[in-house]
Amino acid sequence: MKVETRKMKKVTLIMVPYPALGHVTPMFHLASSFLQLPDCNYTFAPVLLLPHFLHRQISATATNDVDPRISLVPVPEEDDGEDEPPPSPADFFAIDKAMEQSSSPAGQMEAVVRDIVACSGDGGCDVCMVVDLLVSSAIGVGRRCGLPVAGFWAVDLLAHQLIAAIPQLVATGLVHPHSGIPIVDVLPHDQPALSTDDLPWLIGSPSARSARFKFWNKTLQRSTTQLQYLLVNSFPDQNVLHHQQKQQQPKILQVGPLMPKHQVHTSNNVTFWEQDPACLHWLDTQKPNSVLYIAFGSWVSPIGEPKVQALATTLEALHVPFVWVLGPAWRQGLPCGYEKRLSASQRGMVVSWAPQMKVLGHVAVGCFLTHCGWNSMVEAVRCRKPMLCYPIAGDQFANCARIVEEWRVGVRLSGFGRVDLEEGMKSVLGDGEMSGKLERLCEVSLGDEARVRASDNLSAFVDLVFN
Ligand SMILES: O=c1ccn([C@@H]2O[C@H](COP(=O)(O)OP(=O)(O)O[C@H]3O[C@H](CO)[C@@H](O)[C@H](O)[C@H]3O)[C@@H](O)[C@H]2O)c(=O)[nH]1
């Protein structure tokens, strides 16, 4: 009998995530999805390009458990060679500036990409770049190196729709053409209903808002003129087709929600900071469904001392068992002696950084007070935990609308007073239907059928690019 051997073609995938945890995580998951494509004629070698400061940080974090098939390659910083490494860029605009510099023709990224291409060429490999849209300047690096480049949208398609609608919002007079400031209150979007306050560039002072609006205009311009394909980390959504007809370029391929099938029990998640496992032991001592888990992600600015103080006081007054992720910059709002009292009463835990997936997957956790970052909400759905939503910035308002109005698996809090929290917890824990909705949502979005659909879309992308 003749045994047919399939000739596998090698593909190096140069992936450029935006250097923030909420973006690096889904890029890792995307790399894993490529590695797991079934019946594929290609073997993939994903290479994640990380600014040096981030590469250093990830390498130094002991709890990281990176798939050895995924390489992490540092891109040197402009000032490398000095004795002291330059400080990490501190905010959105500083990161944007650093990434623009790094991927400009005079920057360091192009040399790194050319090196990888040269090494791959020796092995007869194809090379393709996948670039997070928030680092749209890196598209130019790929083009200058003659590589096919695809975009990656790390969050919900809905947030992309809001950005892609900018020209239309301006043309119809709904937002100011230069600042992006809304001129009306309601957006022509009904599923879910959104207000102009939900627009993702409305963060911070008026000048920060118009700078972000400018950032999105630049991103949109590059993506519509330079990209053929955009891989989107979204839930299955009927709106895609409708959206697709209106916006031909780039072609949208939905490949999410990206999350390994067995993530709850493995630590296959990359983290930038050491996770504190003590909260898991404490959770083991708590009753099922009794604990409130509170975390506001990795990237939003502190909500301010009065709000931290209000939440801390309410939690103490309500005697709710809780795990609260609170970094050093947020702790200043804690009332005097709070942590000491907490440790004496054993009623809750404040930790600097938690193993979030394991916490959410714990049977003692009843609900999740979240800022509605995209990764956090996908993880909550994966662990079937209802949400108390407190969106703070960017896409979080649109994400919150999805959770509260469309999926109905959470409620929005307007503050952290006693009534807000008591009513909120009663609504999500006392709603007999919410657990059924979460179960269905999890099955529809992360079950086998959804995974097959996402993987088919990824295969279609591979065929379009390499055949
Ligand atoms: O103690 C913690 C707290 C969080 N996490 C993880 O950190 C990630 C947080 O991601 P996300 O929920 O998306 O929040 P941010 O880090 O704030 O993400 C930014 O990036 C996201 C993706 O673009 C956006 O949706 C958010 O609005 C934006 O704030 C998740 O994977 C969590 O599991 C931990 O592991 N331990």
Automatic annotation (TrEMBL):
<dbReference type="InterPro" id="IPR002213">
    <property type="entry name" value="UDP_glucos_trans"/>
</dbReference>
<dbReference type="InterPro" id="IPR035595">
    <property type="entry name" value="UDP_glycos_trans_CS"/>
</dbReference>
<keyword id="KW-0328">Glycosyltransferase</keyword>
<dbReference type="Pfam" id="PF00201">
    <property type="entry name" value="UDPGT"/>
</dbReference>
<feature type="compositionally biased region" description="Acidic residues">
    <location>
        <begin position="76"/>
        <end position="85"/>
    </location>
</feature>
<feature type="region of interest" description="Disordered">
    <location>
        <begin position="69"/>
        <end position="89"/>
    </location>
</feature>
<keyword id="KW-0808">Transferase</keyword>
<comment type="similarity">
    <text>Belongs to the UDP-glycosyltransferase family.</text>
</comment>
<dbReference type="GO" id="GO:0080044">
    <property type="term" value="F:quercetin 7-O-glucosyltransferase activity"/>
</dbReference>
<dbReference type="GO" id="GO:0080043">
    <property type="term" value="F:quercetin 3-O-glucosyltransferase activity"/>
</dbReference>
<protein>
    <recommendedName>
        <fullName>Glycosyltransferase</fullName>
        <ecNumber>2.4.1.-</ecNumber>
    </recommendedName>
</protein>
<comment type="pathway">
    <text>Pigment biosynthesis; anthocyanin biosynthesis.</text>
</comment>
<dbReference type="GO" id="GO:0047213">
    <property type="term" value="F:anthocyanidin 3-O-glucosyltransferase activity"/>
</dbReference>
